[in-house]
Amino acid sequence: MGSFLLLALFSFILLAQSTKWEEELETEKPKTNGSTTTVSSNNKSWEDDLEKDLLEQEKRSKGSEGSRGTTSPVQSNNQINRSAQNLMMDASVAIDIVGAWDRNKPRGTSDRINNKLDIRTAEFGFSGAVDQWLRGNFLAAAHGEDGKYFYEVHEAWVQFPFLPLNTSLKVGQMFIDVGRLNKIHSHDRAFTMTPIVHEKFIGWESAMDTGAEFSILFPWKYITQELVLGATNGKKWGHAHTEGEAKNNPMGYFHLKHFYYFGNNWGTQFGFSGIRFEPTTNRRNQRYLYGADAILRWNQSNLKEIMLLTEFWYQQEIFPETINATTFISQKSPSKDQWGYYLFADYKFHQLWSCGFRYDYFTDKSLTMKDGSPAKNAIEAQSLQMTFHSSEFGKIRGSLERRYIQDFSKEDFQEVREYRIYFQTVAILGSHPAHSY
Amino acid sequence: MGNLKRLHLTSRALIYLIGFVVFGYFPLSAKVSLVASLTDIRYIAEQIAGDRADVYGMIRGTDDPHFVMTRPDFLVKLNEADILCVIGLDLEVGWVPYLQQQSRNVKIQKGQPGYCDTSFGVKILGEPTVMMDRSMGDMHIYGNPHYWNDPINAIQMAQNIKNALVRVDALNAEYFENNFTQFKKKIIHVTKEELKKMEPYFGLKVAVFHDQFIYLASRFKFNANLTIEERPGVPPSIRYMDQVVSYMIAEKIKIILIGPYHNPKYAEYVSSKVPGSVVVVLPVSVGGSAEANTYEDTLRLMLQRIRDAADKTK
User: A–B: how many Cβ contacts below 8 A?
Assistant: First the structure.
């Protein structure tokens, strides 16, 4: 009997509780209906809403009077703060995976082709304001060479961006500002492999050295002009893992750049560069490089783009005079003269897709036959490529290249034809800075 | 004594020379130079600054502010600017910070009197509610930056521009203040006028290509939450667009809004699958279409097109 009473009491409590939440649920319904009514009545009283919003706006304005807008003098909602996220600087990682196959391998001419898929560079970098006067940039990369990964500092510089008379100064190790490609890291370039002329004169990567680079932006109205003057240690040239030899004179260079905007979103940038470098410790051994670069671009936001790009380089290397062993008269040594260029056209026909074509030409005017007469020689390449731009931070590219190498100064393999296939994937993590034009 | 006199003369000549070079290089001009990233800022700045400033807009109304080339001619404009006005909230993150740094002009750097982020004090919508990453597309971590389509936000923008002008040219503060008051009145009048016209359309549901009309929708009480873009800045997949089609049919949504710089083919695809639906191109910004010459015209034009589309698809 007792247990029955207990059960009845428990059921009553349970029932009473259920009734309570049911009642609560019931009372919720009119509330919901009420809010709908409020919304509709609010819709009708839009004038009240507007007045309220205007008052709020005025209140916010008054509260922030005299503020420069970098901090909020009135209470504001917490925002996700990028500075807090990455310690007040931009940090990024760029992974550049390249697969290269040469049908003629191992007889192929390029030492960068090992008929395999490899991580060409894995680069990480940080950049940001050092303080109110300085900006800093650090970029280091590990790249694969013969199965080993070499870590090296690519760029570590400090910039004084706000010097008087529209000038700025950069000090440290940097990719020197000459030509079009040299300042662009390999993963950011519009094609997978470095143009032949660039590879022959500068290297497959960019020319980097430690020194100072001064730049002035001229205040002309109708054309934009910038002059860059640089002087670096000149110990090494191109890609090297050593410090290089100490030279008598620093390496000096200039780059005069022009930009002109015209028509419906067309723009062209063209420039002229010159470099003086001593390749050996002998001060009479001098290398001069003269270059011209140009780019013509049209774009319709990120949907369509046409790009025509070219660079021409001429290199003259002067050697020390030699003394004739019999007459003891000093003789002028013949200089080594080489030149080459590339032409590249790219058409982005879809937000995600672009196709391109590149033509490369290179010749050495100093090569001679056995009888001393000039030897016909040239390297010519045609490449076709297709790029899938998964976003601004990722791309997949496939290219086909036909290369014709002619060299009549040699006894054998005077004419070689090579067929190469390249595959490239680039992935950028973190905050990648915007690119120059 | 003669040497001392010569020294005095030389130093005086040197001072004159330096003065000549410096003032020759930096012409003394009474006018403030203001550079605006977008045409809407340019228009508002022109209203506030009147004839006391030279206002230059970097892009056109038909350009997508998310994707702009870092044109070197902008550098010269920025180099000469006293004020740089931007939308902020990372809308121009792909081009303005680079140009700003390269401009060699300390006056327009962040935190300086000449830097004007017009989003300051604006009630921001679309702030993220989850931790974001790039798999979600081009997300704006500070919230939706298309706030200029709400006229009340345009008043706040004008306020910010006026404050920047006063910081740089305090002598003309009263002039700027008067212009601001006039502009504010004009905007409130247009807003009231348009709200009245929109009254019968309150609660209207529309689809959009890019999530850029939430401020306009919020002010004029229609719903623009359905986006054809699966992820911001990334072309949508067919699978996702088919989901949008089903949703639009179920919810009887028959209007798709797009900006002048968007690829219309995605909206057209969706529209072709939703019977009776229309794609409406809105100017979004001043200069976004031939008739959108002022901020007020742009606003009127956008709302008129929405109303016309609503009437047509009834």
Answer: 144
CA distance B115 to chain A (A): 8
Alpha carbon distance A144, A159 (integer Å): 30
Minimum-distance CB partner of A299 among B69, B123, B124: B69
Whether A392 and B112 lie within 8 Å, measured CB to CB: no
Dump pLDDT digits (tens) for B162-196: 999 999 999 999 999 999 999 999 999 999 999 99
Contact yes or no for A217 and B104 at CB 8 A: yes
Cβ of residue B235 closer than 8 Å to a chain A Cβ: yes
Structure-block tokens of residue A292: 């011209």
Mutate to test the interface with A, among B73, B77, B122, B198 (most CBs of A within 10 A): B73
How far are the Cα atoms of A185, A215, A267, A309, B267 from residue A271, in angstroms, in the given order? Answer: 19, 14, 14, 12, 43
Which residue of chain B comes nearest to A222, CA vs CA? B73
Whether the per-residue pLDDT at A68 is higher than 90: the answer is no
Radius of gyration of chain B (CA): 24
Question: Structural domains in chain B?
Answer: 32-117+129-191 (3.40.50.1980), 199-312 (3.40.50.1980)
> Would the CB atoms of A46 and B199 count as touching at under 8 Å?
yes
Contact flag A297-B79 (C-beta cutoff 8 Å)? no
Task: Please report the DSSP string for A152-183 in residue order.
Answer: EEEEEEEEEEEETTTEEEEEEEEE---TTTTT
User: What ipTM score was computed for the predicted complex, to two decimals?
Assistant: 0.85
Distance from CA of residue A114 to its chain's centroid?
25
Contact B235 A68 (CB under 8 A): no
CATH dotted code for A90-430: 2.40.160.10
pLDDT digits over B195-254, tens only?
999 999 999 999 999 999 999 999 999 999 999 999 999 999 999 999 999 999 999 999
Structure tokens at A148: 């080993």
| Chain B residues with CB-CB distance to A224 below 8 A | 72-73, 75-76
Whether residue B147 contacts residue B125, with contact meaning beta carbons closer than 8 Å, is answered with yes
pLDDT in tens, A85-121: 556 788 899 999 999 888 776 544 555 567 788 888 9
Q: Are strands A415-430 and A394-407 parallel, antiparallel or unpaired?
A: antiparallel
